[in-house]
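Ticket #186: bound-state structure for coenzyme A.
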Amino acid sequence: MASYGDGDQTGGRVTARVRTATTHDAKSIAAIYNHYISTSNTTFDTDPKSVEDRVEWIAERGDRQPILVVEIDDVVVGWGSVSLYATRPAWGRTVEIGIYIDPAATGAGLGMQLGEALIEAAQRGGYHALIAQIVADNTASVHLMERLGFERVGYLREVGSKFGRLHDVVLFELLVQERFADGGRR
Ligand SMILES: CC(C)(COP(=O)(O)OP(=O)(O)OC[C@H]1O[C@@H](n2cnc3c(N)ncnc32)[C@H](O)[C@@H]1OP(=O)(O)O)[C@@H](O)C(=O)NCCC(=O)NCCS
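RESOLUTION: The complex was predicted; output attached.
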């Protein structure tokens, strides 16, 4: 199982650990995701995910497209993913990241810690470009992507339909080797 960063580390105000998810994390991952599915436009999924669905989803991931979890005192308080952005072969070096932190644990630096780990995982996987698709009014996530070094590269108008409204999406991109070219953050 891959570990990220220095293992246990201080992510802002709390001590948290990021590790690769196993199928045993499916229940926690589903609970966090289902909260955001049912209460927010942060994901364009609209139907809750069952634990069984998440078990399969985690099990089919290889090392190159991991699901990571962040935990405090062995309790999972967030998860993130590195996923292929599109299936046609020429997209093969481009991945998308997503991050979901338990609402009770936001604002403590965990999104940043998980984001850094996902970027590191994408680099390990040999990917070239990282994409994040963020709903335009999702201030927290827009800020997080900017802090992680992603660049705003596009804007899609009225592409999501949820809760009886249309939602715009901001496209963010980060080129992995530019990020690591000088051995650290730009
Ligand atoms: C977006 C999200 C992942 C941020 O996670 P988090 O753990 O709260 O983020 P952090 O504490 O690491 O904060 C990262 C940066 O975002 C800022 N931020 C966090 N919440 C914010 C908010 N509501 N408004 C503005 N900025 C915010 C922090 O201040 C910090 O920036 P700073 O270092 O300049 O102060 C979390 O709010 C979440 O899970 N949201 C729902 C799911 C989602 O939107 N996912 C993104 C789609 S993939």
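RESOLUTION NOTES: The helical segments are 26-39, 51-59, 110-124, 139-147, 176-180.
TICKET STATUS: resolved
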